[in-house]
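Database export, one record per block. Field names are fixed; values are copied verbatim from the stored entry.
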Amino acid sequence: MRRTFHLALISLSLTACATSSPYKLSSLSYSEQELKPKATRGIASVEHKEKSYLSLDLPYAAFEKMRVEVEKNQSVQLQHRGEAHITVISPVEFTKLKKKISMKEINALAERMDMTKSPYHLLCVGKGAVKEDSTYYAVVESDRLFQIRKAVHVLYTQKGGKAEDFSPEQYYPHVTLGFTKKDLHLEDGVIKDASSCIYSLRPSESVKN
């Protein structure tokens, strides 16, 4: 129910941004061909003493071009990691989940749910800022990634974890394009959803038609 409400808010946010954003939602284009699953798309399951997470790795070319366009239009020079991914379980979330389940178990669950083939939809390019720091990202929506988070929650509670330790619905999937000094996250007060959009996105194939 809450997720349905969130999807409705996304739709309203995109509509509101189109009429009230100071950027008037200029469009950036991307190539759908460059987003199709390739050998470079896979699961990154990292379990480390200091930083553990689960993410869906994506082909980088389309997102690199988005970053270049953002830099040009926003007159900024962004730092970046030279790769693209959608985080599914964040390092902060895993610090609680690891009380009852391992990253190996989470990874096995993700593989059973065919995470590498997860469909996702690009919504817009968003911007988050805290004081002088800014971060730019492609906001996405993916029901399968959300379902994987729900399955992780079920596994965690089945093993004795408290339901309130991890909220599968508190999820704002995105692909980080770049940042001025450091990437900003939910813990910094930045919510990477459609309410932060500054550019709409549309396939370059449709731009030509």
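Remark 1: The chain has one domain: 2-203.
Remark 2: The helical segments are 2-20, 61-74, 91-97, 103-112, 143-158, 204-208.
End of record.
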